[in-house]
Design a protein that fits this description.
alpha+beta; five-stranded mixed sheet; two-stranded antiparallel sheet; 7 strands
């Protein structure tokens, strides 16, 4: 099914084959296979997004935070999709480097929130940035202990890390999230539905 999401919960089927969803109502172009992608982030001047994050009270004040010695979070060994998540982080940083942006570091709290959302979508058979209980990506990040979430990309039906990153990069809204040079952290979550469909969630943060 080819589908375009015009907003929260609004999906229009327009054919067969690939599917593309953009939370902000932007038609981002074609995707391949039985696949879905959607992006959301803080509202900005470009009008690409509709779901806003509350500004952090300490935005712009990072003098008392030293991230240089923070250990790189390691995936849980019993996560069957940890290697896929790590590969998406590597591919994302390759795209950011090519665009002149600093690398994002894998963040455990964001990964927890992202994995939870992917699992929820895979288990309950839906595809949306808003959880069925009404939570936004910033709500989910905060519940996991991270209060500086700035954007989220989701996808379903892409079989490999390379395929999902390519799909996101071919979509203006998702590409903008990946190449936002203000991002400093990333969390990836991959979950498999009963029919084998992979659900992907990528969350970015400031710190």
């Amino acid at each position: 099914m080819l589908a375009i999401a015009l907003g929260a919960g609004a999906v229009i089927g327009v054919g067969t084959g690939a599917a593309l969803a953009t939370f902000a109502g932007e038609d981002d172009g074609p995707a391949g296979g039985d696949q879905l992608i959607a992006a959301t982030s803080e509202a900005d001047d470009a009008g690409l997004v509709t779901q806003s994050a509350e500004p952090s009270p300490d935005d712009g004040d990072s003098d008392d935070t030293d991230e240089s010695d923070d250990p790189e979070p390691q995936p849980e060994p019993d996560d069957p999709h940890a290697a896929l998540a790590a590969e998406v982080v590597d591919l994302t940083n390759a795209e950011r480097e090519a665009a002149g942006c600093p690398a994002v570091k894998a963040n455990e709290e964001l990964a927890t929130a992202a994995t939870g959302h992917s699992s929820d979508m895979a288990t309950n058979d839906y595809f949306d940035h808003t959880s069925q209980d009404g939570r936004t990506f910033t709500d989910r990040a905060s519940a996991a202990g991270y209060d500086d979430a700035m954007s989220e990309n989701i996808a379903a039906g892409y079989p490999t890390a390379a395929a999902v990153v390519e799909g996101w990069m071919n979509s203006p809204g998702h590409r903008a999230n990946i190449l936002n040079c203000d991002a400093r952290a990333v969390g990836l979550g991959v979950a498999e539905a009963g029919d084998g469909t992979l659900y992907w969630t990528q969350m970015f943060g400031r710190a």
